[in-house]
Structure formats: structure tokens, C-alpha cells
Amino acid sequence: MSVIFLIPGPLRAFTAGRREVRVEGSFTTLRDALAALCAAYPGLRDRILTEQGEVRQHINLFVGNECVRNTEGLATRVADGNEISVIPAITGG
Predict the structure, then answer these.
(1) Which residues contact 57 (CB under 8 A, 6 or more apart)?
(2) Is position 51 within any domain?
(3) Which residue in 23, 44, 54, 58 could disulfide with 36, CB within 3.0 to 4.6 Å?
(4) In tens digits, what is the pLDDT along the chain, a chain of 93 residues?
(5) 71 lies in which domain range?
(6) How far is CA 49 from the centre of its chain?
């Protein structure tokens, strides 16, 4: 199984400049897919997840078009070929 993570510009320094990262493995949930991503690119872990392993407040994750904050969070099921978007919150004034 493989999924594709879409990496925003501010985090591409941790993926060697890659906009898209394909992760392969035997996983069924977003938590498992994120673990595989962070194993390949360790610098991403602390930017996406807290010390307790939860999604940081200023990060939104989408599996397809669904924000996981509105579904099952990190227990959201992923399927082969899913695109997972990492979207940092944007603030300004």
C-alpha cells in the first residue's frame, strides 16, 4: 500500500525540497502512515505532532478532501493511493 503526502512550502526543507512524498508500507490508519513518513523524514515529526503524538493545533491534515479533525483524527482510515495534505494554519492581521 502507498499514500502520497502533500508537503507545504514551509516544511519542504525537511523533505529535501519535495512537494510530494510517497510512503509505502502496511498501514491502515493516518497514525500509521504518519509514522512511516516521520521515519523517512524525522524532522517532520516535531513540526506535525506534539510530544504526546497528537496533531499540533496549528496543523490541519486532510485525507482526500476530509479534514481529520472532523472525522476520526489520527485513527482515520487510509486507503491505497490516498493523498494526505499537511496544511499549516495561516494567521495574519
Answers:
(1) 89
(2) yes
(3) 23
(4) 999 999 999 999 999 999 999 999 999 999 999 999 999 999 999 999 999 999 999 999 999 999 999 999 999 999 999 999 999 987 665
(5) 2-88
(6) 9
